[in-house]
């Protein structure tokens, strides 16, 4: 559904996983503002690449999927 541009499905994904992804980013950065910015950047990136990615229901898989872009965004700072 997200791959097809379904905005409500993407909003649900955001609501479901934002906090966990924020905690993961904060664990890497120890900076709340930077963690929020990076998580936002990751969600924008994923929306832009939505036709190319598959997101599983498993929280571990989602966290692992987002970990790479979080670390990449952090390295650009």
TrEMBL record:
GO biological process, one term: DNA-templated transcription initiation
Domain of life: Bacteria
GO molecular function terms attached to this record: DNA-binding transcription factor activity
Entry protein name: Uncharacterized protein
Organism: Niastella yeongjuensis
